[in-house]
What does this fold into?
Amino acid sequence: MSAERLVVIGGDAAGLSAATQARRLRSAGELDIVVLEQGPEISYSACGIPYWVGGLVEDRDRLLARTPADFAAQDITVRADTRAEGIDLSAGEVVAAGGERLGYDALVVATGGDPLRPPVPGLDADGVHGVHRLADGADIRAAIAAGAKRAVVLGGGYIGLEMAEVLQTRGLEVTVVLADPLPMAQLDSDMGERVCAAMCGMGIDVQTDQPVREVEVGPDGAVRAVRTDAGSYDTDLVVLGLGMGPEVALARDSGLGLGATGAIDVAHNQRSRSHPEVFAAGDCVQTFHRITGEAIHVALGTHANKQGRVAGSVIGGRPARFAGVLGTAMTKVGDLEVARTGLCTTQAEDGGFDFRTELIESGTRAGYYPGAAPIHIKIITERGSGLLLGAQIVGGPGSGKRIDVFATAIWAGLTAEQLAGSDLAYAPPFSPTYDPVVVAARVASRIEQG
Ligand SMILES: Cc1cc2nc3c(=O)[nH]c(=O)nc-3n(C[C@H](O)[C@H](O)[C@H](O)COP(=O)(O)OP(=O)(O)OC[C@H]3O[C@@H](n4cnc5c(N)ncnc54)[C@H](O)[C@@H]3O)c2cc1C
It folds into this structure.
């Protein structure tokens, strides 16, 4: 009996997780695996691009986790520079560049994200850069090496923050221009204000409430300034950090069903709802929020890897399901760590929850221990039950990863009181006697108890 064939479109987090997991469960004699990647690199870390631009990582190849040869050693064929041009769902074939047709028994669509670009004049000018692929990082590094002195970052999400910080570290004057009233729109405004203040304190110029109207271009065709209704900001370099939509052109054109978010609509086992013989995973799919049950699109590597693994498991014959997301995320700007999980206030309001919020200030370490820094935690609980709904953290080094405790507690359906009584570690270099997580949970539960 000849082997079945799995074709994977997209050679990064989701696609390669699917391929490797399927291979773990089915031998080369049972399953032939081919991965098509349109770009020159595979298995790269987009998450590392800001740190490569910032010079924390100098060698680009450190961002490459595995090579085609590594995959070949596992009997997985990875073809870089090979774009999938179409999917013939009725024939069960992928049409690759040049017209080659690859038949499949199982297909994984893992085409990733599509960076958002506002429809404004000048966005295609020389000097306007995305931060999506390694080539973008190389272009920004080249612009800095060529003497760029000023940069405008469009967008105040985590990519915008990370890029603003590293460009400033490289000695550029940085202006962040955002349409929202504050950076990090996924935070409540009282937490976003702290982020904004920290950025301004670092010397980053933050221009809020200003949708970009035009990227002004000089006679040489290169970017000269970014114009909003409130002003014009001279620059040598524009970096786009406006968020990520799903890359679904191939899926849509082939007839795969899209969901309410515009991303590929998949069931919990990553099978397309419209064509269950096809799987999809990563930034190109929509998922669901564990608290509200709503369909959402979240472009994060942590989900892409897990969803790919789920698809690979199912293809390999082992039932699996992706358990949804809480919107857990973290980043840093300078020494300030920023993290969130679950619902923020506006999400809780939109979801019709009866809830209360508490904000506490504590320290990251025992007050006498060197390096202790302030930490602010905002916690959202359901009124009456005390069930944890969300948490946001803004604070010094050691703050951000505490969000995982809240994420785990929400995942497990704990109340604030249960979290307050839980056995969290304490030693002076890491925490005050009562960890700030416990303090926040205790304040919320005390109030609940009246
Ligand atoms: C600057 C930056 C920082 C980030 N930081 C974090 C972070 O700190 N934490 C986190 O969790 N996530 C982070 N992310 C997000 C994370 O990188 C993505 O969620 C993850 O890479 C998604 O994996 P994916 O496989 O779905 O898509 P991608 O990594 O985008 O891979 C999709 C691949 O498919 C290929 N492809 C597309 N169409 C075709 C086609 N027709 N034929 C062949 N190949 C095709 C693309 O070339 C691409 O290589 C960051 C992203 C960026 C850009």
Observations:
- The mean pLDDT is 97.
- The radius of gyration is 23 Å.
